[in-house]
């Protein structure tokens, strides 16, 4: 995905795709495969090895349609082991090609031929190149390859905390050595077809995979639902920036937040 061939293969991003979605069709909310794919994995598919951090990550997104209606997506991205021998072999081949290009570029900077590479490049270049390949490499016989995957809930209202808890419980059920009491399909069917939206001004308690989950919907005379933790805003923007943004809001200025 993109022109990032200068990066080593494990640092590149690859094209992702939607593997499955349920239900297949909703009249009032048609499934936009391209938008959901891009928003679930905005940086594309990525690979890791056992040496990399593979902690699950949560993020959210909003799809706004032409009529102004919104749907909210909540995504849990995790890494699972690659079992395909073909993909593992392809990753090793990419690294062999990448290392060959690295050698040739070092060789060119040292004005030597490939035959005399080992004796011609200076000691500093050789050491840095060796370190780079040792810490940023993939060996099919030694390393375990992992690939990113995500599960996403798309909802008509931004019940962030409830969706977050459900996705974490579902992920634990997938990765746990002991299966949950019921098949995974039962929990997915339950949240899609049997858990209703709470009426305005009321709370709803439903059962996730392991623990009950509560979500609350504001009444008609209350502020709109905002289930996002303010602490994260302070951590990301800092106090001074947040005060400046709030000042701009009060002064009705246009605000653009840009992020990777």
TrEMBL record:
Write out the entry's keywords from A to Z: Guanine-nucleotide releasing factor
Taxonomic superkingdom = Eukaryota
Q: Which InterPro entries is this protein grouped with?
A: cDENN_dom (IPR001194), DEN5A/B (IPR047278), DENN_C (IPR043153), Tripartite_DENN (IPR037516), uDENN_dom (IPR005113)
Give a GO molecular function annotation for the protein: small GTPase binding
Domain UDENN as annotated: residue spans: 1-260
Q: Does the UniProt entry include the keyword Iron? A: no
Keyword match Secreted: no
Instruction: Specify the protein name.
Output: DEN5B protein
Q: What is the lineage of its organism?
A: Eukaryota, Metazoa, Chordata, Craniata, Vertebrata
């Amino acid at each position: 995905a993109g022109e990032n061939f200068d990066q080593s293969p494990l640092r590149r991003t690859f094209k992702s795709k939607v593997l499955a979605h349920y239900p297949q069709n909703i009249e009032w909310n048609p499934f936009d495969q391209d938008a959901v794919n891009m928003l679930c994995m905005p940086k594309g598919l990525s690979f890791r090895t056992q040496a990399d951090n593979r902690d699950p990550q949560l993020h959210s997104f909003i799809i706004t349609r032409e009529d102004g209606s919104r749907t909210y997506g909540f995504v849990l991205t995790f890494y699972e082991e690659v079992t395909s021998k073909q993909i593992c072999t392809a990753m090793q081949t990419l690294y062999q090609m990448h290392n060959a290009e690295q050698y040739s570029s070092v060789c060119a900077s040292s004005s030597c031929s490939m035959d005399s590479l080992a004796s011609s490049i200076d000691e500093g270049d050789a050491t840095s190149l060796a370190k780079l390949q040792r810490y940023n490499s993939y060996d099919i016989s030694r390393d375990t390859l992992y690939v990113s995957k995500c599960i996403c809930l798309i909802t008509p209202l931004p019940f962030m905390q409830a969706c977050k808890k459900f996705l974490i419980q579902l992920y634990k059920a997938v990765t746990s050595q002991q299966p949950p009491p019921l098949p995974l399909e039962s929990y997915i069917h339950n949240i899609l077809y049997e858990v209703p939206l709470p009426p305005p001004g009321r709370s709803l308690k439903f059962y996730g995979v392991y623990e009950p989950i509560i979500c609350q919907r504001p009444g008609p005379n209350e502020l709109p639902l905002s289930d996002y933790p303010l602490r994260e805003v302070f951590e990301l923007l800092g106090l001074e920036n947040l005060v400046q943004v709030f000042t701009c809001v009060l002064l009705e200025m246009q605000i653009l937040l840009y992020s990777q």
